[in-house]
Amino acid sequence: MFAVVAPIAALLLSAALLLTGHGLQGTLLPVRAGLEAYSPFDISVLGSSYFVGFMFGCVAGPLFVRRAGHIRTFLAMVGIASSVCLVHALFLDPIIWWVMRAATGMCLAVLYMVIESWLNARSSNENRGFVFSIYVIINLFVMTLGQMMLILADPGEFPLFALASILVSLAAVPIAFTRFSAPEPVETVKIDIGGLFRSSPVGVLGCLTTGLAIGSFWALGPLFAQSSGGDVKTVAYFMSAAVIGGAISQWPIGWISDRLDRRAVLVATCIAAGLAGVGLSIFGAGDIQILIGFGFLFGAFGFPVYALCVAHTNDHVNPDDYVQTASALLLLYGFGAAVGPLLASLVIDFMGVGVLFTFAAVAYLVMTVFTLFRMMRRPPMPEEEQISFADALRIAKTVSTVDVLQPETEEEPDGVVPETAGTPGS
């Protein structure tokens, strides 16, 4: 194991520092917005802005890398993301926060791309699944750690913003001093969402639906915990419980889905996520332990839906199209996550923030009904023809190593390679 991890240790350390700061900022901003009396709509736009920027980063990131190289692109995005943390503390105007949050989304998309393309290049077919398993575990652990850092200081003051900026800035150091060569230029793929829907309607709608529900959770979950009578510690515990639940449940749910009709597992998971959402809406304000417990269940069943949809979709496409497929699904998820908080805020304006998870439950209910309808129209995929859930997760994680929104154009002549700037060690 040491021989596998040693060459990528710097990359993993950079990812850990980056995502710890990102996890802190992601929970700190809605909490501070609540303290500043931002409306639910203002906070929802804040969450949507991140995913709008993220989608832009998915498109623009490969262009940045071709122009400047992996290392310089990484350092530039870290510099911007770190500065944005401080701008949030200096200017409390909602419009400025929206723009800055979109900038963070763009930076994170590009930074994910650089780290994951590097990990992909440093892995072999034999150990790639192990490498990305380590990467996912680190991601979930440090995101939780970052959220828990919310209890270290008053979110109404400057220190937590400074801490988030410091952590993001330190992520540049391991990459800047790495001795390993940069990966090859990013690959270009073409996307056909209409054709993908014809191949797997459940997968396409499922990724969009998951974006609606989970995007609303990230944007408005802290506000929900605050409105339920919780203090800053409660917000940190609630958000962390959901992430931990999602981390723990990925493997057993994936293992089951490899052995049954994956749509049946998807139905059961959506129903459970919906019930957890209803439980939060009904009982969340009554007791802090119940709030955290239902938050854990919501994460445990709500978060894996995206990976199940990626796996189900890949069951029905050509293996040569796996990366193209996952790229389209990622953009669909991002679109749903950008729209979801806005729709949820409209419901909250009429019925109060307590219905946030009712909104998520309705989204999962729609997905359940549609999946059941499709199960009556198409027989299950034979188990031996299914892609493994672990492979689907790996494909989903390596999506950002490609240019995910290339228009349908004529192929480049053989031998033409996109021009890239030289980088240290390349």
Topology:
Elements: H1 2-5, H2 9-35, H3 40-68, H4 70-90, H5 94-121, H6 128-148, H7 159-170, H8 172-176, E1 187-190, H9 193-199, H10 201-227, H11 232-257, H12 262-283, H13 288-302, H14 304-315, H15 322-351, H16 356-377, H17 389-397, E2 402-406
Parallel strand pairs: 1-2
Which descriptors apply to this entry?
426 residues, mainly alpha, Growth Hormone, Chain: A, 17 helices, 2 strands
What is the SS-derived class? mainly alpha
Please tell me the total number of domains.
2
Please give the number of β-strands. Answer: 2
Look at the structure and name the CATH superfamily of the largest domain: MFS general substrate transporter like domains
Would you identify the regions where 5 or more consecutive residues have pLDDT less than 50? 398-426
Q: What's the CATH architecture of the largest domain?
A: Up-down Bundle
| Overall CATH class of the largest domain | Mainly Alpha
Tell me, what's the shape? globular
Distance between the termini: 26 Å
| Radius of gyration from the alpha-carbon trace, in angstroms | 21 Å
SSE order, one letter for each helix or strand: HHHHHHHHEHHHHHHHHHE
- How much of the residues is beta strand, in percent? under 5%
Largest sheet at a glance? 2 strands, parallel
Q: What's the arrangement of strands in the largest beta sheet? A: 1-2
Overview of this structure, please?
With 426 residues, the protein is an all-alpha fold. The chain folds into two domains: 1-185, MFS general substrate transporter like domains (Growth Hormone, Chain: A, Up-down Bundle); 187-408, Growth Hormone, Chain: A. The chain is built from 17 helices and two strands. The protein has a two-stranded parallel sheet. The longest helix has 30 residues, at 322-351. The two termini are 26 Å apart. Mean pLDDT is 83; it is low at 398-426.
